[in-house]
Design brief:
By secondary structure, the protein is α+β, with helices and mostly antiparallel strands. The protein contains three helices and nine strands. The chain has a nine-stranded antiparallel β-sheet with strand order 1-2-3-4-7-6-5-8-9, covered by helices on one side. The chain starts with a helix and ends in a 13-residue tail after the last strand. 20% of the residues are buried.
């Protein structure tokens, strides 16, 4: 015959054990919710890195996809400034991929090369050129198709380029959220 004490022992977890299990389950659910929120915010941050525009420029329709480097780069000894990667499709000028500096200048007249690295892959040398103009500080990549493919397949793209101040500099871009549908016909 069971005593009252024996019956209580077989009744399952104690009130304290049940409270601890509930607290642990609540903490796990909270941690999962925080992680989901962090992942959603990170996806939104990465998607917002790219800017897409449609405009009429130079007498023709133009579509662009542009992203700033993750970190500013000192290209002229005057302190770090923004570096931008732009893909442009213009009805008259065609398709282009190029870098834009906010200050300083590229050492690339009439031509030079850049090193482009996608994720942890081997660097690839691509020919580049600097237009003979002071209107914008731009460096065009001759093989725009290769640059586009590398960008579309990568999470991070690093571009090493020559600067007028001497040597080379590297700009790194978080490119994984490129929305290729915003640039019709490129893929």
């Amino acid at each position: 015959m069971l005593t009252t004490l024996d019956a209580c022992r077989d009744a399952g977890p104690s009130l304290a054990e049940r409270a601890a299990a509930a607290k642990a389950a609540e903490a796990a659910a909270d941690a999962k919710a925080r992680e989901a929120t962090r992942a959603k915010l990170e996806a939104q941050r990465i998607a917002a890195l790219w800017r897409y525009q449609e405009a009429t420029v130079g007498g023709g329709a133009q579509v662009t996809a542009a992203i700033f480097a993750t970190d500013d780069v000192d290209v002229d000894g005057q302190g770090p400034k923004r570096v931008q990667l732009v893909f442009r499709d213009h009805v008259k000028w065609g398709r282009s991929g190029y870098l834009v500096l906010q200050a300083g200048d590229f050492a690339c007249r009439p031509s030079c090369s850049v090193q482009v690295t996608a994720d942890d892959g081997a660097p690839r040398t691509l020919a580049a050129w600097r237009p003979d103009t002071d209107e914008a500080i731009a460096l065009f990549i001759r093989d725009t198709k290769a640059l586009w493919r590398m960008t579309g397949d990568a999470a991070r793209l690093r571009i090493t380029f020559p600067v007028k101040a001497g040597g080379t500099r590297e700009a790194s871009f978080e490119v994984q959220s490129l929305d290729e549908t915003k640039m019709p016909g490129w893929s």
